[in-house]
Structure formats: structure tokens, C-alpha cells
Amino acid sequence: MLVTESLPTAAGTGGGIDAPLRARLAATIRLRTESFGSIAYVPERDHFYALDREYGSALQRLATGEARPVRPAHREMVTAMAEAGICETEPPTPQRAFYGRSLLGAFPGGIPSIKAPMVVNCFTTAQCPLRCTYCHADDLMKSYREDENSDWIDEVIRVAAATPAMVGVVTGGEPLASPGNAKRLLTALARDKAVVLDTSGVGDFGSLVPALRHNNAHVRFSLDSAHPSINDRLRPINRRQVPLGTSSFRKAIEGVRLAVSEGVACSVQTVVTARNSDSASLTELRDMLLEAGVRTWALHIVVPAGKAAQRPKGLLIGDDGVATLTRLVADTASQRLPIDIRVTSTHRQPNSTLLISAKGELAIQRRDGAGKKILRVGRVMARRRLLRQFRRHVDTAGHASRYLNGTLDLYPKYVTAGLPAITVAV
Ligand code: SF4
């Protein structure tokens, strides 16, 4: 039985069923028209939604700024989109947690196909103060470190600007290992994309807070366990880069606390390996995140790429992990806990993500997991070439599934639990 059957439908708005409803687009929303309708990205929640044409046309009647009257025929759709954070209503509709596939409307074929990237991950630097046991990007760091120079970030920015993605991720390597590059990249990406900062928290996270607030960026901290010893064994420090005694667990928690207190939208991502995949450990971590005020949790099944491909023993879990995570989501939904959960199963399609290396090359994991394809992006017709490479080398169905929560099949509608409000720095 699908758990959906036992869940209530979305709650109504505060105004009652007959009160007139007005609505506006959420101030920071990103929208892109697609052949099936549109894709919306909600930066505060780091959450994509695919909307069918009906939802898309209800949304098209809204604008940012002044709220407009909602037609009775659109009322239910607009309410659902307000619960998802895509628009805001008068009277207000609270945002609610979303646990399943991120589809609003009718998608009889499941996750829809896309022709352009949703997300591009951009290396800030090849340096990192950690040596995570499963590091996906290990092969894009070690051999780049010695030659890294200050011109590289210009090339990363150029290639990112040519990439028609909705979201640009400032990643690495650890962005905090090169805060100057991180600020430049963040500002450059924000010109035409929503921005996410991926960080371990090891470094001076506080120095990036003003830039994050200014650009309405979302920050995603990496944390693998509620237990410092387990986390720090999976994510040990590089003693050549940070003082002995530095704990990746402690730095991530400090970062989460600072982001929450500063009103910077933040989430946590966890790489699920054989060492942290038991239900009790994941439940403990979820409860710790809830207590810390985290509203979004992304769980990634470890991908046999980078370091995890070289030393897979004791790390890889495959589809057993999907079953455990599906149960975790079902448990979270049945308790109506206020946290969005996204599960990725990129181990099934390793070539689902788009990376730009620290040198500004396109880097795409090979289908069989054996290393990354490295491609230069020339200056002439860069966007067209890049799109061609994306369609040729990236598993576009896997890409859409990764960001639209396609691993899960539960709760195809939406929402159950009210999310705590956050202050967005607009
Ligand atoms: S923090 Fe990220 S880039 Fe650094 S070692 Fe860990 S997984 Fe790799």
C-alpha cells in the first residue's frame, strides 16, 4: 500500500474555502518553460518542481510584487504551489514539507525529460581540507592542485555563464579553502542563476554570509552522522591543511547554526554508505537536523566513482540503500515531520551530473563509472556546444530524476507538515 492512501490531502488556506484568494510569485523563484509545462526552483528549500501545463498556466497569471486575484478554477493549484514555496497567497498559505517526487499536475510518464541542464556544479578550487573516504571529486582535485592558479576561476566563470542551467552550485574542493574565489563565483553565478554553496563548513564560513545573503543563496552542509566519531571517520581532515583536532562534524554543525541564526536558507546533505545506512543512525541524524532548524535534507546513495570506485569495500550499498531510505521517508511522512527529504540514486546513472572543473573544463562521469570525460568548451558558440555535450554525455533522464526526487515513488501529490518559517534576505 502506498502511504499516500493514509495521508490527508493538502490543508486549505487560512481564509477558508469561500474567501477570495490573491497570489503573487515568490520573490526569489526561478522558472523555466519546458515542453511539458515548466520547472520551478525554490531557492529557500533548494527544491525543484515540475509543473504540468495546467499548473504552469495558473502560475503564468501571477507576477512578483502585487498579489492578483486567483480564479476559482486555479485555487487548488495555487494553494498547492504556495505550500511548495513557488508562490505566496493572501491570506497566507503556510509552506509544507514535501516528501516525494516533485511533480505538480499530471505526469503519466513519470519524471519528464529535459533538454537543458537544471544544475551545474562549479569547482571553486581543487583544494580541500578533508579526505572523505568516498570523495566523488577526488580525481578532479589531486592532479589539479599543483598547477592551480588565480586565472582558472575566470575560465570557470566563463563556462558557467555559457551553461543554461537554472542553478549554479559553488562547490569543489572546498569553497571555504578559497573564499576569494568563492565570492567571485557566487556573484558571477547569481547574474543569471539561483546559487547554492556546497560546503563542509571547515574554514571561515562566517566570511561568506554577507555574500550569501546578498545573493539569496542557499547553503548546503555535508554531514553524514549524528555521531562525531562516525562522521569524522567518513570525513576525516587532511592534516596538512587544517590543525589536528579539527572535526568536520563540529564545523558542519557550527555552520548550520550560524546559517539558521543569520536567516541564510540552509540544508544538509548526507552521503549514504554501508557505514551510516542503518535506519537507527539515519533517524537519529534526521531528528538532530529537525532540532537544529534544518528544513531540507538531501540523501545521496554513494556513487562508485572517484575514491569510492577505487576502494569500494565497506562503502557501497546500492539498491538496499534505496529501500532503507524509502522507509525513512515513509516514517518521516507518517509522523508529518517538517523537513523536505530528497533522495538521489545516481549510483544507477553515474553520468547524471554536470561539473565544471577547477580549470574550467566540463567534467562528466562516464556511464560505466570509469573516470570522468573531460571536455574543453571553446569560446565560439560556447552555449550551443555545451548543450550538445550535455545531451550527448549526460544521462538527461537521470539528471531530471536526481533533482525532481525521482528515486521516490511516494506522495506523488504533495505535502503534509507545516515548515517553520525562515527569514529570507531579499
Ligand atoms: S569535502 Fe567534498 S571535495 Fe572534499 S574530500 Fe570531502 S567529498 Fe571530496
From TrEMBL:
Single GO molecular function: metal ion binding
Source species: Paractinoplanes brasiliensis
InterPro entries noted in UniProt: Aldolase_TIM, Radical_SAM_PqqE_MftC-like, rSAM, rSAM_sf
Domain of life assignment: Bacteria
Keywords recorded for this protein, A-Z: Iron, Iron-sulfur, Metal-binding, S-adenosyl-L-methionine
Gene3D superfamilies per UniProt: Aldolase class I
CDD domains named in the record: Radical_SAM (cd01335)
PROSITE patterns associated with the record: RADICAL_SAM
Pfam family, one: Radical_SAM
Name of the protein this chain belongs to: 4Fe-4S single cluster protein
Domain Radical SAM core stretches: 114-340
